[in-house]
Amino acid sequence: xxxxxxxxxxxxxxxxxxxxxxxxxxxxxxxxxxxxxxxxxxxxxxxxxxxxxxxxxxxxxxxxxxxxxxxxxxxxxxxxxxxxxxxxxxxxxxxxxxxxxxxxxxxxxxxxxxxxxxxxxxxxxxxxxxxxxxxxxxxxxxxxxxxxxxxxxxxxxxxxxxxxxxxxxxxxxxxxxxxxxxxxxxxxxxxxxxxxxxxxxxxxxxxxxxxxxxxxxxxxxxxxxxxxx
Length: 229
Fold this sequence. Notes:
- The protein has helices at 8-16, 28-45, 68-79, 85-94, 96-109, 135-150, 156-167, 171-174, 178-194, 199-227, and strands at 49-52, 55-58, 113-120, 124-131.
- With 229 residues, the protein is mostly helical.
- The strands form 2 sheets. The protein has a two-stranded antiparallel ribbon with strand order 1-2. Strands 3-4 form a two-stranded antiparallel sheet.
C-alpha cells in the first residue's frame, strides 16, 4: 500500500493507537495534551502563526474550515486573545474529545481507521476506533525511530513528532529492545533540548513542546496531590 500523507495529529493518533484493539496505548492525560500539541504543531508547520513576546498570533490569512486545524483556528480567532503556547495547549486539551473525533473522522476518510458508534448501558453514546491496516503505523514508527536515532538532518515534521513522543512518554511504543530504548530516550532528550529546526517555525515548535511538558507535569502534580486527600 502506498504511503499516505498524514498530519502530525494523525501521526500522533496512529502511533498512540493500539494496532489491533479499539483503544490507545497511553493514558487519557497524554492523549489530551498530545492531541492539543499536535494540532498546534501542525498549524505551526503550516505557517499559521507568528510569535511575539512568547505569544502565538494567528495570521489573518488563515481561513476557518471544517478540518481540525480550521476548528482550532476558529476557536482562537473567536477568543480575541493572543495567549502563550501553554494557554492554548490547555484550552485545546480541555476540548480534546471534539478535536479527536474530527481527527478520527479525517483518518476514516483516508481509510486508516474504522469507527463504530456504540452506547454504554444502552444509553450513553460513545465511539470506538480500530486501525484498518498495520502497514501505515508500522512504517511510521520505523521512519520516526530512524529519524530519532540518526537525529541530524531529520525533517521539521519528524522533530515535532519526536517532541510529542518525549512529552507523552511514548518511547516504549517505538521499541521493546532495552538497549535501543535507552538510546532512543537519550536521543529524544537531546532533540527536545537542542531542537535543530530554526527560525520562527522552530521557535514555536520549542515553545509548544515546552508547554506540553509543563501542562502534563502540572496535571500529574495536581492528580497526585488530589490523591493524598
